[in-house]
Amino acid sequence: MPVTKGSNGAIKKENSPIDVDKIRQDFPILSRKAHGKPLVYLDNAATSQKPKLVIEQLDEYYRQHNANVHRGIHVLSEEATDAYEAARAKIRKFINAESAQNIIYTKGTTESINLVANAWGRQHFREGDEIILSQMEHHSNLVPWQIVAKATGAKIRPINLTEEGRLDLDHFATLLNKRTKIVAITQMSNVLGTLNPIAKISEMAHGAGAKVLVDGAQGAAHMPTDIQEFGCDFYAFSGHKMCGPTGIGILYGKMDILEEMDPFLGGGEMIEEVQIDSSTYKDPPWKFEAGTPNIAQAIGMGYAVDYLQSIGMENILAHESDLTNYTMQRLKYFEDVHVYGPHGKRGGIVSFTMDGVHPHDIATIVDQEGVALRAGHHCAQPLMRWLNVGSTARISVYFYNTTDEIDIFIHSLDKVREIFSNVAERTV
Amino acid sequence: MSLNGLYKEVVLDHYRSPRHQGKLENPTFEEGGHNPSCGDTLEVYVKLDDDKKITDVAFDGHGCSISLASSSMMTEIMIGKTVDEALELVETFEGMMRGETEFPEEDEYLDVLSMKGVAEFPVRVKCATLAWDTLKRGITKYHTQEKSAE
What is the pTM of this model? Predict the structure, then answer.
């Protein structure tokens, strides 16, 4: 839907593809106050808030169906198992995976990546093999590879970024060679909002015979995801960033790879037959789900998917693009504010710094105005070094945010100026 | 909880014009500090005389207003103190941040006393204690080295 802008660049509410006022009623936390002011939650890249549906279904599960899965021969266990597997089916559909068996439950994106690095990486990396990742990766897509590289003698090769903060695909092409075993790349930078061309990266990597892992922590929550269109071999994402509970995440893997892959954790649930000195394992995905899983959380994530689909991922993407454009437009008028990352198409994450004020101080001051944003290195220290900053402040929007909230955030920056300009006058 | 308690004029003054900021040539010891939550780093340099009295101290690095002001204030009160007195002051400061102890209301501690407001902002306490904690670690390491040299 085209967006009509008012004279001050504001997006008229009636043009939003979704009814935000109505949606906000679904999120109890959004009506609370912070320091006596209405809460303006702009830290969605860290974690999203939860709709009533998810909260109620967690409650319902523990009140009515709680049992261990795939074990008991009783009514509760059957219900719990059905709900647990039904959620897996919902999540399969959500990302258009080939089958529910491609969907492995983990405790989050971090564990998903660690699973691949440890189970697949240790199996395949030999001395001198190469792992390609990029300067914009979150620590969770860096450190697991570093650990496994150290153990196997593999080397890490980072893709450079362009001036604007996009992947330098020409540089990527020069890094690919027959020693490249895997390309591990983020779908969206959690600092710059950069959206990476996953299908193209997969094609290039596969051309060199390498596998592709995509860190979808900032992706699946915000836009339609078609894993088969991406063509990647692994896709990792978290429930808590998409209206689901914490403690649940997903690893998607291509079936032929999952079948020949060693397990990550051993224990109950993942076995077929156990001898005293050896075991056979279940088929994927259960081969990778040792121990009692996060059952309620998995079911909760399934309901989060239902909720998101009731709004529509296309609509969510459109609304967030509008909010991001609006934020960029408003920030551009301030000479003391510096915004990082691409200025064209980008995700709903805007990192910035202010002259003479440390991001931590920005966060503390706007917090008193009810505005929740993040300040720090955002678990992306190599990127901070590339940007030549110690840290940034960051706002990250979700579909329940409004242009009014962006206005409150913009005004709260005046408070920062007020406090820090007093000093300038005093010391000059 | 009020911002006025946090961003006092004296704090902002130390932030804008930090005392003893920069590298110290030929220090007796130096120690690095790191705040993993924000990525801020700093270096503390200390010069001692033969009686283990601090003759000069400086810090270098980047940080928020609280961290820079606190570093600056620390350097001011440490000069002329013995390492043992310095350790005691660090304990007192860290105690103040936990809301347990207080600095005596003496003139030389007035600036440091203004940091008391930080204790009301738990997420910022680490900013305030970074330099102090780094100094403590530096002194402890120095002691250990001295002992093993003996």
Answer: 0.92
